[in-house]
């Protein structure tokens, strides 16, 4: 075990990803504290990441040849995405059984939905590369369906009538990240059925679907690769800057906020991991290590911005929610390197 741990901690790619994420988050914190970056600047960074860099990252992750293994894994991740959110909806009712009234709904929604897109995906990309990014975006399809339906209903207290359904469907399907994910996913799945273009390669020529722009239109694809590489560092800077703006002492002093943060960052990913180990061992839903690791990191992300926004806008424990958002982010920054190392140890033991 000590040998495996040493090997993991000395792996240059793993160590580089951990140090990079933590260091850039702290850089964002420093820049905001020293007022080198303004509050408006931090919000603008977040907007650029969400509307430009992450959609570019989502799309480019699918610009690759399709193979049977990755297709099977992608479908497993899609199924698991819907399954884990249904499981968590049930389990959080049990976990927070003693909490009464509105606060139970807030606890449950904040626990189920983490910042998988803004916090989780950049870390997955840094550690597991394009394959991890692809799995993360497939996993997030279920996340957004439940976030804009179940979470909205719980926090607003409204029924999903025709008007609300229409509004939330727009939020799901007109979101730039979802559009990029669905477009990229469809190209990846059906690339062999698209009209083919012959492209010169090292050993002669090879045919590609015309929408595989990484091969057919490299001059158009290259700008997207520059944009997708900005996603992780810009997201980490924005996270650090956001942490610098929120009063920390009040959040730290509340036991219920600590309880929530530990459940969100530690217990939820453990539940996800244990269930996937069982499903993988029994052969019910085989998932490769990269897929398992991706879902664990996504589940270990702090409070989702949209979930927090629901609580605040509908006046559902808004102060508690703000404190949860802050403390869970701090705990996630500390816990994420531990999770990455733990996952590598599990991989080297041979569980996956």
UniProtKB/TrEMBL annotation:
Q: Does the keyword Transport apply?
A: yes
Provide the transmembrane region boundaries: 14-32, 44-63, 75-97, 109-128, 134-153, 173-190, 260-279, 291-312, 324-346
| Cell location | Membrane
* KW Lyase (keyword) present: no
Membrane topology classification? Multi-pass membrane protein
Q: What is its main location?
A: membrane
Q: Which Pfam families match?
A: Mem_trans (PF03547)
Supply the alphabetized keyword list: Cell membrane, Membrane, Transmembrane, Transmembrane helix, Transport
Q: What is this protein called?
A: AEC family transporter
The scientific name of the source species is Clostridium cibarium
């Amino acid at each position: 075990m000590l040998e495996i741990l040493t090997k993991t901690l000395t792996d240059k790619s793993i160590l580089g990803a951990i140090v990079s994420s933590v260091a850039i988050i702290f850089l964002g914190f420093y820049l905001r504290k020293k007022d080198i970056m303004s509050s408006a600047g931090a919000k603008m960074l977040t907007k650029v990441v969400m509307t430009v860099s992450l959609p570019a990252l989502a799309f480019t992750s699918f610009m690759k040849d399709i193979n049977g293994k990755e297709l099977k894994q992608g479908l497993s991740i899609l199924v698991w995405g819907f399954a884990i959110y249904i499981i968590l909806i049930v389990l959080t009712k049990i976990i927070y059984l003693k909490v009464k009234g509105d606060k139970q709904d807030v606890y449950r929604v904040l626990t189920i939905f983490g910042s998988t897109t803004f916090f989780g995906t950049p870390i997955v990309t840094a550690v597991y590369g394009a394959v991890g990014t692809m799995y993360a975006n497939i996993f997030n399809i279920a996340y957004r369906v439940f976030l804009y339906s179940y979470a909205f209903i719980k926090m607003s207290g409204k029924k999903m009538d025709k008007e609300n359904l229409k509004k939330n469907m727009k939020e799901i399907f007109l979101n730039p990240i979802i559009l990029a994910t669905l477009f990229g996913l469809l190209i990846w799945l059906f690339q062999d059925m698209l009209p083919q273009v012959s492209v010169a390669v090292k050993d002669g020529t090879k045919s590609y679907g015309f929408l595989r722009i990484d091969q057919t239109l490299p001059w158009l694809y290259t700008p997207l690769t520059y944009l997708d590489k900005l996603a992780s560092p810009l997201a980490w800077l924005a996270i650090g800057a956001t942490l610098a703006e929120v009063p920390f002492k009040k959040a730290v002093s509340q036991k219920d906020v600590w309880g929530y943060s530990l459940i969100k960052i530690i217990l939820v990913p453990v539940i996800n991991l244990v269930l996937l180990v069982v499903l993988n061992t029994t052969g019910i839903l085989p998932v490769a290590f990269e897929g398992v690791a991706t879902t664990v990191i996504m589940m270990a992300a702090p409070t989702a911005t949209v979930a927090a926004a629901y609580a605040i806008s509908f006046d559902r424990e808004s102060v508690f929610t703000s404190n949860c958002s802050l403390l869970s982010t701090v705990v996630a920054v500390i816990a994420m390197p531990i999770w990455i190392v733990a996952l590598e140890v599990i991989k080297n033991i041979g569980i996956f």
